[in-house]
# Entry
Amino acid sequence: MPRATDRPGEGTYKCTNCGQEMTIEKESDQLPPCPSCGNNTFNAA
Ligand SMILES: [Zn+2]
# Structure
């Protein structure tokens, strides 16, 4: 499962804690901590 600071590639990732969805648009973008709750683990949505 992708974690904050990973570069998981383009796609939508969902916070495992609060369900906030975030979109990564570039292969080189880092997944940030959840902006809503600060959680660091995500599921590919
Ligand atoms: Zn969250």
